[in-house]
Amino acid sequence: MNKFIFQTKINFKRIVFRNKSFFFFDMLLPIVFYVLYTKILVTGIPASYLKVWNEDYLVSMMIYACMLGGIITTANTLLEDQMSNFKLFVTLSPLSNLQYYTSMAIVLVTLNLVSSIAITVVAIIVNHVTLSIGLLIALILVNLLGTTLLILIGVLISFVKKASTVNLLTNLIVFPLAIISGLWWPIKLMPTWLQSIGKLMPTYQLSVIDKNVLHQTPQHIGSFINLFIWFVIILAILLLASKIQKRKGIVTQ
After folding, report:
1. For the ABC transmembrane type-2 domain, which residue ranges apply (predicted)?
2. Residue among 142, 180, 156 nearest 234 (CA)
3. Side-chain half-sphere of 186: how many Cα atoms within 13 Å?
4. Number of independent structural domains in the chain
């Protein structure tokens, strides 16, 4: 246990304190989008709807921040570990692969937690969004549980083993997914066929769950089923890809 805690501390230092880009991409960018879309680009939105818009867009940017941390940061961090032979060092140490990935997951979930809190603080200061402590904790916890799926996607992308391809895939997944899921603007503004696709995405269903928590409205089981199906699919692909790479001798045991 002490070795696991020590490894987790090392991961915090090298991923957070030595990676200044985290503060820009995982925290600052969603905050900028939130301020932009709630204080500047609000022309045509009725004043009576602004309160709901400010709250709903808070949820959207919390999920978007977790996409940046869960997919982009995860994929690039794991790829860097492989290219720098840090993963080999871990393999040769007393820590198992399971402990390595668990330690990484703790760090990455913590980063998502910090991002969620930072955006919430901005929403409270800038738009006077009111949330009780209990409601805030429930919202953040539900959001973090949902975004564990995003971390799995990041792990899967890292299996590509090429920095250029990893960067391409993360961009091709994160930004289009944010758009069609209705995180950047309401999904109702999109064509009907695109709405149908967007509503199948896990990030859209997670936003539905988060908004129901925020507004204290009844949840729909369909959203949870959607996330569970996506979780099973991504996990199955991840396990299959891992077995294929081990069979080819790409992954060091």
Report:
1. 21-248
2. 156
3. 9
4. 1
For 13-22, what is each residue's pLDDT tens digit?
Answer: 777 766 666 6
**Cα(250)–Cα(80) distance, integer angstroms:** 15
| pLDDT higher than 60, residue 88 | no
| Nearest alpha-carbon partner for 184 in 197, 203, 168, 212 | 203
Confirm whether 64 is domain-assigned.
yes
Residue 92, pLDDT score: 53
Angle (nearest 5°) at CA 200 between 175 and 184: 35
* DSSP code string of 204-216: HHHHHHHHHHHHT
Nearest to 76 by CA among 134, 129, 151: 151
168: how many CB neighbours lie within 10 A of its CB?
13
Range of the domain at 40: 2-248
For 147-178, what is each residue's pLDDT tens digit? 889 989 998 998 887 888 888 999 899 999 99
What does the alpha-carbon distance between residue 17 and residue 23 come to, in Å, rounded to a whole number?
10
In a domain, 253, yes or no: no
User: Is the residue at 138 inside a domain?
Assistant: yes
Angstrom distance (rounded) from CA 16 to CA 13: 6
Question: How far, in Å, are 46, 89, 138, 180, 217 from residue 212 at the CA level?
Answer: 22, 45, 11, 20, 5
Q: Any residues with CB less than 8 A from the CB of 72 and at least 6 apart, and which?
A: 25, 154, 170, 174
Label residue 253 by pLDDT band (50, 70, 90): very low
Does the pLDDT at position 89 exceed 60?
no
Q: In this structure, what DSSP letter does residue 187 have?
A: G
pTM, to two decimals? 0.86
Contact between 111 and 73 under an 8 Å Cβ cutoff? The reply is yes
